[in-house]
UniProtKB/TrEMBL annotation:
Reactions performed catalytically: alpha-D-glucose 6-phosphate = beta-D-glucose 6-phosphate
EC number: 5.1.3.15
A Pfam family reported for this protein in Swiss-Prot or TrEMBL: Aldose_epim
Domain of life from the UniProt record: Bacteria
Name of this chain's protein: Putative glucose-6-phosphate 1-epimerase
Enzyme class at the top of the EC tree: isomerase
Gene3D superfamilies the record matches: 2.70.98.10
CDD domains membership: D-hex-6-P-epi_like (cd09020)
InterPro entries hit by this protein: Aldose_1/G6P_1-epimerase, G6P_1-epimerase, Gal_mutarotase_sf_dom, GH-type_carb-bd
Family stated for the protein in its record: Belongs to the glucose-6-phosphate 1-epimerase family.
Keyword Isomerase among record annotations: yes
Signal peptide start-end: none
UniProt keyword list: Isomerase
Amino acid sequence: MSTHQPRLIDVHGQPAVHLRAPDGAQAIVLLHGAQVVSWVPAGGEERLYLSEASGFADGQAVRGGVPVIFPQFEQRGPLPRHGFARTRRWELQRTDTGRDDAIAVLRLCDDERTREQWPHAFGAELTVAVGGTRLDVELEVEHRGEADAPAFSFTAALHTYLRVREVEETRLEGLRGLRYHDNVRGSESVQDLYALSIDDEVDRIYFDATRPLQLQEPHRTLTIESQQFPDVVVWNPWQDKTARLADLPPLGFRRMLCVEAAAIGRPIVLAPGEQWWGRQTLVAG
């Protein structure tokens, strides 16, 4: 038996599973929202940003890590902003430590509370795998309704907060030529620069972003890949908006950049019995 079996720990009063691969790579996943709040590659340093000002109360969103956005992105629909998955307690289905990685699987199913907001029978499963320099987060959604139930549609994202040393010294490569919606300016445009630099508030949805991305910093890189998440959200609130966010410290915006695997432009539609999955992979360099 491995000496690094996953174990439950307490994180600010919330139960969480601590994953540690045999090579020393680690991740921490809250049961609250199935939210990854820490990732340390083997021999490396923390690569996810978690706000020290965040609350961890039941029913409250946690600022940082990898919030699971489902079944609605932002306010693009009638549900509460970003849906309900990130503020609900998920069930830990299983954990395992293999020769190369450690894995946790968490599950959320519809109940009376979710059906009051979104009247569909669903199962959502999040699988987190950590090992070496790699973190994989996969979301799977199943329509669990009866055969004669109507199809449902949803949007989703893995709202990944990447920890950076200084956001103004980062460059995000791989978006050139892509159409995007700029939420700050309320306009549509096409990325014409080879790399995106951050020197002001940015809130963009890039559509059909199927190429791997590279987050470049002095002396280190991060490769960001996704499967079956066709869109990418890039977000940093910058100084003025940060001042209006009670759960983000005044200089927090300098230490983070959200690069989110997402399905927004074309909502996912599932008939009874159908499933969908999407994955984001981070590789530290």
